[in-house]
Amino acid sequence: MMQRIEVKVLLLFVLVFITLVAYASVRLFTEEVNGPIVVTNNLTANDEKIIIPVVLDEREFAMEVSDTQETQQKGLSGRGSLCEICGMIFVFEKPSKYGIWMKDMLLSIDVLWLNENKYIIHIVENMQPRSYPKSYYPPSDAKYIIEVPNGTVYDLGLKVGDPVNFDLSD
What we know:
There is one protein chain. By secondary structure, the protein is α+β, with helices and mostly antiparallel strands. It has two domains: 1-31; 37-165, Sandwich (Jelly Rolls), CATH 2.60.120. The chain contains three helices and ten strands. It has helices spanning 2-30, 69-74, 152-156; strands at residues 37-39, 49-56, 59-66, 86-96, 100-101, 109-114, 120-127, 135-136, 142-149, 164-165. Strands 1, 2, 3, 4, 6, 7, 9 and 10 form an eight-stranded mixed β-sheet that branches. Strands 5-8 form a two-stranded antiparallel sheet. Helix 2 (69-74) links the parallel strand 3 and strand 4 (86-96). Residues 20-45 have low confidence and may be disordered.
């Protein structure tokens, strides 16, 4: 009898814990992003990441800024998942025909190239990890590249010529 009670208490504890984790996850990934957020890994100062809000078709995403050669070469490589409102924005010093490849990628993504006026100039949907070593390039110069979860372009109905809203001034 005592063993059954212990099992029931343990099960109740596990259910409460799972519920709290689920609630915290939903709050974390659905709260509005109001400006840059700095996320620092406790191990080293070099792991600091800047997260900014980026609006695609009135939907706000939390985008990790990639503005160094090191972070741009790595991109989202090695990540096993990406929340549905998360992504990465590559920021380049000057416009050019920057390419993207899927080296060491574990998940499929949609990729948007933007001109310096923040309009979509090229889209590749459902870019697959198995496509490596193929590289993808825009037809004209881009200043920004955005990587978002696979299916985002379709879900939002994004197309070439659409504006993208973000602010890098902070």
